[in-house]
Amino acid sequence: MLPSSTPVGDLASTAPHHLLLGPDTHGVTHYAGEVAAATDALVVRDAARLAPGSAVHVHVTDRLFGRLPASAAEAVEALARRLRLTVTLHDVPQPTDGPVFHARAAAYGRIVRASHAWATNSWHEHALVDRWCAAGARGTVIPLPIVRTSGGAPRGCHAVADPVLGVFGFVYPGKGHRQVVRAATALRRGGVLASVRVLGGAAPGHDDEVDVLLATSAARGVPVEVTGRVPDAELDRTLRQVSVPVVAHRNVSASASMNSWIAAGRRPLVRDGVYAREMAALRPGTVTLFDDASLVPTLATALRDPDSTWLAPGTDLGPHLQETAAAYRTWWATVHR
């Protein structure tokens, strides 16, 4: 940490200062910290400590600023008035957001227009910005890295009588938990006594989603375990303990949860979509795609062949964090020239 008396704008750095918003337990803030460390950027928590005109980078999701998307736009616009601001956009709006979509799209459009330059984590998200938030705006794309924290994954796994289907991340509408429960119901009707393990807790403001999930799964006769937040130190081990990892959210635009499965050596089943296909092409052999009609047979195949849910030895997981850091440095050098 920097001494509170040190004026941040007076310190030299080859990367822009990184203004971190929100708690470190938030996925976007955690990733911002990783990028800052990898690029040797100075981390700042209080924007008031930044000297006017400083080059500053912020990883933005409107949900870090409260319930109203407009609050995020107002905050970023205030920063941009006194700083040379670049942003990485997370959770880019799309129509499947529901009633809040138009407010979110308007807020992200304001953020793009206020910023000196902007980036997304996928071409899919870049296209969403162009279509729904700021027509004709052009940013850069720097994919989320895979941060491998342990050695090679075990293989030669054996089928188990009572398999566990795992879904990792916050519980919120559209995340896919209910679809996985319905798939488990179908498997159980066929004699496969599958259960569901939710590796995470309710997203802020969505506590009722857990209650509804538990009630509907009980009515279907499907055992569901909700673990709550998984500590970082236990994440790899926890992700390796389920029979089949599933990434089933309907409106995925960039998925840290999918990358966490891969980092743990798993090959998750991922709901097909533009982003999923983009990542499958970026890292061949790291995901198995399914659509709504094929989830149950795809799960059945995975349960018959447990090795298919693990990465093959030597699978290329790039870009890694240092490659992502290099891409950021190149981009910043261009936009701050």
Provide a descriptive summary of the structure in words.
There is one protein chain. This protein is α/β, with parallel strands linked by helices and 337 residues long. It folds into 2 domains: 154 residues, Rossmann fold (3-Layer(aba) Sandwich), CATH 3.40.50.2000; 146 residues, Glycogen Phosphorylase B (Rossmann fold, 3-Layer(aba) Sandwich), CATH 3.40.50. It is 37% helix and 14% strand. The protein is built from 11 helices and 12 strands. The strands form 2 sheets. It has a 6-stranded parallel beta sheet with strand order 2-1-3-4-5-6, sandwiched between helices. It has a 6-stranded parallel beta sheet with strand order 9-8-7-10-11-12, with helices on both faces. β8, α6 and β9 form a beta-alpha-beta unit.
Summarize, please:
This protein has helices spanning 27-38, 69-82, 101-114, 123-133, 177-189, 207-220, 235-239, 256-263, 274-282, 295-304, 321-335; strands at 17-19, 43-44, 55-60, 84-89, 117-120, 140-141, 164-168, 195-199, 224-226, 244-247, 269-271, 288-290. By secondary structure, the chain is an alpha/beta fold. Helix 1 (27-38) packs across helix 11, helix 2 (69-82) runs parallel beside helix 3 and helix 5 (177-189) crosses helix 10.
Looking at this protein, list some descriptive labels.
single chain, 337 residues, alpha/beta, Rossmann fold, 6-stranded parallel sheet, 12 strands, globular, disordered N terminus
